[in-house]
Amino acid sequence: MKPFSNPLKLTIQPFVFGASAALILVFVVLSFLYTAEMGETFNAAQKAFATYAGWFYVICVNIFLIFVVSLLFSRYGRIRLGGQGAEPEFTTRGWLAMLFSAGMGIGLVFWAVAEPIYHYTSPPQGLEGATVDAAKRAMTITLFHWGFHAWAIYAVVGLSLAFFAYNRGLPLTVRSAFYPLLGERIHGPIGHAIDVLAVVATMFGLATSLGLGAQQVNAGLGALMGIEQGTGAQLIIITVITFIALVSVINGLDGGVRRLSEVNMVLAALLMLFIFALGPTLFILNSVIQNFGGYLRELIELSTWTESYGNTQWQHTWTIFYWAWWIAWSPFVGMFIARISKGRTVREFITAVLLVPALITAVWMTVFGGSALHEEVFGAGGIAEVVSEDYALALFALLERYPAVLLTSGVAVVVIVSFFVTSSDSGSLVVDTITSGGAENSPVIQRVFWVIAEGVVAGALLLAGGLKALQAGSVLTGLPFAVVLLVMCYSLRRGLHEEWLELRGAGDEPEFLWQKGRLSRFRDGNGSGGP
């Protein structure tokens, strides 16, 4: 079905836009009218989903990681997104900055200190808290939650959407990834349902991050200016930053998101270098190697751990929440990185999306989380007490141990705000693309609508129960979309195999493109006798 156009020059897919907007509107209205009841409902639903479907999340994320790694080393790795002659639209630096900012952003800043410290004081698997062993385990678990599994989920969606859009000429929507299975039926009710589910999952995943960002900005402003923390202040913060995101989205992908993403990376890198230089530098250098090694060593054990013999709820609150959060974010991040990845090979795409961010994340978490743990284990301590009081204060509690606290706290707030804006901005671009039937240059007013909607949903979740409601929103929407991703893996494998067969039949088999180029240079006399 072609996108619907009206006299207002809106370009939308009527059913997807209408159903998505209606579902979101119903949720917002219920959250404002029945705040307490919605909070109780979210808490009960999260507990039920995590208890009875936790094992399913664990299986799914492992399948996604194995699938992506298999593609990385497969014969399909040389297939180029957009065709063998396609050229990348963005520089590698800009490309990496955008995918990283969209993929982790606010969450990475929010949890960099809070999560390692929490696991240090309350480790799982019966380990005694506040010990050296607990500190090592805390970093291993943190890297596990933010490592390969998360980025494998993004890679599945991003690669699927990019391949079917740029190699098969289908609309840049989630439904297109199922063409090998559904054929032209992707344009009917089944395809509509897939896209609506993707929009709802994206909105709740984004709202979770925006809500966390508002809480941390509130904490930072409290440290800088004494502004009291509370839902009211956080709603004002969401409103102000949503307005900033509107300005960015009007400037478009290259003028808005790309520039902000590069600013994000520079400021975040400067903040990290500050902590690295003035903090326990030698400890950080040693521990980044040990932390990543511990993560690799325990990867299989942690990937298959389900608390079945412990009869505890720790994993439900942490690991299952993360897996659901990444899955809920995957339509947004996947489509966004698909839009910016034309011209990259499958192998280049997976390497960049899976390996590079995981390594950067390990360094980031070690610098911030490791410095906080060093303060607890070898220093004066006190950060753990702050974390137990409020996760959002954790980063600023660490910065207080260093010189120029007002300056560094101000930079931290700017970093959070810029990540906030890029997440909202790029999220609105993605949701608009889905609800417009794949149109990449729809009217700005449509993206403005979705930017505002994201802020409203985040505010509704904060009203309905704060952090617990934010987490519950991701868990609830992530479960059905996990099923979609499983089918997407199979569909992508079929599509890549068909592409490989076509290229092979045309004499351009991807596996031999490099060898053919080398042989051609040799015959021309340019490949013999020297480099």
Q: Could you characterize the architecture of this molecule?
A:
The structure is a single chain. By secondary structure, the protein is mainly alpha-helical. The chain is 76% helix and 1% strand. A two-stranded antiparallel sheet has the order 1-2. Strand 1 and strand 2 form a beta hairpin.
Layout: helices, strands, pairs:
Elements: E1 4-5, E2 11-12, H1 14-33, H2 35-72, H3 92-103, H4 105-121, H5 132-146, H6 148-166, H7 179-182, H8 189-225, H9 231-250, H10 252-278, H11 281-297, H12 299-303, H13 314-317, H14 319-339, H15 346-378, H16 383-389, H17 394-399, H18 405-435, H19 444-463, H20 466-505, H21 513-523
Antiparallel strand pairs: 1-2
Helix pairs in contact: 1-2, 1-8, 1-19, 2-6, 2-14, 2-15, 2-20, 3-10, 3-14, 4-5, 4-8, 4-15, 4-16, 4-18, 5-11, 5-15, 6-14, 6-15, 6-20, 8-9, 8-14, 8-18, 8-19, 8-20, 9-10, 9-18, 9-19, 10-18, 11-15, 14-18, 14-20, 18-19, 19-20
